[in-house]
Design goal:
With 133 residues, the protein is of the alpha+beta class. The chain has two domains: 64 residues, NE0471 N-terminal domain-like (2-Layer Sandwich), CATH 3.30.2020; 58 residues. The protein is 40% helix and 21% strand. It contains six helices and six strands. A hairpin with a 4-residue loop joins β5 and β6. α4 crosses α6. The radius of gyration is 17 Å and the shape is elongated. The model has no long low-confidence stretch (mean pLDDT 94).
Length: 133
């Protein structure tokens, strides 16, 4: 894939490829890029496998623009929009490896419906505990 253009709009990063396709991803997956200034976003390098922003230490692979979910959904969206949630602590409560929960959050793996319900239930339980303070 050869990238001809990169731009940002509506909390997304867009690329146009040499064959005329426009692909995008949500910046929720890339918090450093989401929080970067417009100037910081313009200072990048196109590499053989992706885009690199040296100043903010962020990388996006070209392959990731072709993933099925460019916008986070489910568990992924909950954690990426509520950065105050501690994935490590929630994984411990669930008896789950943090690396597995991280894969669900990053969208690289999808939890089963049962597992997703268990994760949401733990988040709700934490909310109830906090509300009772």
């Amino acid at each position: 894939m050869i990238v001809r253009e990169i731009w940002f709009a509506d909390d997304r990063i867009y690329i146009e490829t040499d064959d005329g396709h426009t692909l995008w991803q949500s910046l929720l997956y890339y918090q450093r890029l989401k929080n970067a200034t417009d100037k910081e976003r313009t200072i990048f390098e196109l590499g053989a496998f992706g885009i690199h922003w040296d100043y903010i230490d962020e990388d996006i692979s070209y392959e990731s623009f072709e993933y099925p979910n460019p916008e986070p959904v489910g568990i992924s969206k909950i954690f990426l929009t509520h950065t105050e949630l501690n994935a490590s602590a929630i994984a411990r409560r669930l008896g789950m490896k943090q690396s597995l929960l991280t894969q669900y959050i990053n969208g690289t793996m999808k939890p089963s419906k049962i597992c997703e319900t268990q994760i949401v239930d733990v988040i709700k339980q934490i909310g109830q505990e906090l509300a009772s303070v």
